[in-house]
Amino acid sequence: MKEGTTSAGLCYFTPGQIGWYESPCFALFFELPGEEYLVDDTPTWLTTADIDGDGDQDVISAIADDDIIALLENQGDGIFKEPAYWQAGDRPMSVSATDLNGDGSADVATANNSSNNVSILISNGDGTFQDKVDYAVGSTPTGIASADLDGDDDFDLAVSTLGLDRIALLTNNH
């Protein structure tokens, strides 16, 4: 995207693929086909963030059946590179992307349904991640969101857990 311009797009997922409609007006209400990208298996959740530090929104997806996340790097024109994959916990059901360690790069967190934990993948700022670190959150986590929940100017995580019918809060102490 050129400096001073704005762009919008819509990302969707179906079994085995992730699709993208670039603005304007999302191809007139989706009458035109968007780009589609094959991924390893069925994506369960996706989000967008600038993972590689180039100012463009990349697509990150949880792929539960393979215990991974997929990253599709935006090349700046709404066309994405082939997916790259990183290990998450067992059955990542949802994914969140935000700067968790304060370095200015979006990191990734997944809610892992079968391993009863959250995986944190710290971004290297170039489209790659460090190995995951897991944090226990209780039985059957399914959803994850990030926000500054305790007012200390860093992002914390909120995780929904089906097995306990509770919300687990992971406060960030970086």
* Widest beta sheet: strand line-up: 4-5-6-7
Mean pLDDT: 85
The level of helicity is: under 10%
Determine the structural class based on helices, strands and strand pairing.
mainly beta
**How many strands?**
14
SSE pattern, N- to C-terminal: EEHEEEEEEEEEEEE
Poorly predicted regions are 1-7, 24-32
How much β-strand is present in the residues?
A: 35-45%
Report the major sheet.
Answer: 4 strands, antiparallel
Count of helical stretches: 1
Distance between the termini: 32 Å
Gyration radius over CA: 16 Å
Describe it:
With 174 residues, the chain is mostly beta strands. Helix content is 3%, strand content 44%. It has 1 helix and 14 strands; from the N terminus they run E-E-H-E-E-E-E-E-E-E-E-E-E-E-E. A 4-stranded antiparallel beta sheet has the order 4-5-6-7, with no helix packed on it. It is globular and about 40 Å long.
Give the gist of this structure:
This protein has 1 helix and 14 strands. The protein is mainly β and 174 residues long. It is globular, with a radius of gyration of 16 Å.
